[in-house]
Design goal:
Elements (H helix, E strand, L loop, with lengths): L1 E10 L2 E11 L15 H8 L7 E6 L2 E2 L4 H5 L17 H11 L6
Length: 107
């Protein structure tokens, strides 16, 4: 379960995300489809705890992202569109590396 209520993210005078609310039930698959510059990446970074919202509230399961971001991050796998660390690695090499860091077996 993911609950997002009145999510806001601003950068000085720019509002990147403006009062976004939605709910995703367990086992539900959704897509975040809007035009470029509408805040998709910003929303994903806030959902995964890598960026703090300016306002609003996010719950992943029964966890509050504001106070329990480490616990939330341990439940979520997130690979941004651009490999953030090693551009010379292939996608599969990076995924293998990230999995190994998290103790995920190769089986």
């Amino acid at each position: 379960m993911i609950r997002v209520n009145d999510l806001i993210r601003t950068y000085d005078d720019l509002t990147a995300v403006d009062r976004v609310s939605f709910e995703i039930d367990q086992r539900e698959i959704v897509g975040l489809l809007v035009h470029n510059g509408a805040g998709k990446t910003t929303i994903m970074k806030m959902l995964t705890g890598y960026l703090e919202p300016t306002g609003g509230h996010i719950e992943i399961g029964d966890l509050d992202i504001e106070t329990q971001s480490t616990a939330v991050q341990s439940l979520i796998g997130y690979l941004p569109e651009n490999d953030p660390l090693y551009p010379e690695m292939t996608v599969i090499d990076y995924l293998d590396y990230a999995a190994e860091l998290q103790g995920v077996s190769h089986s």
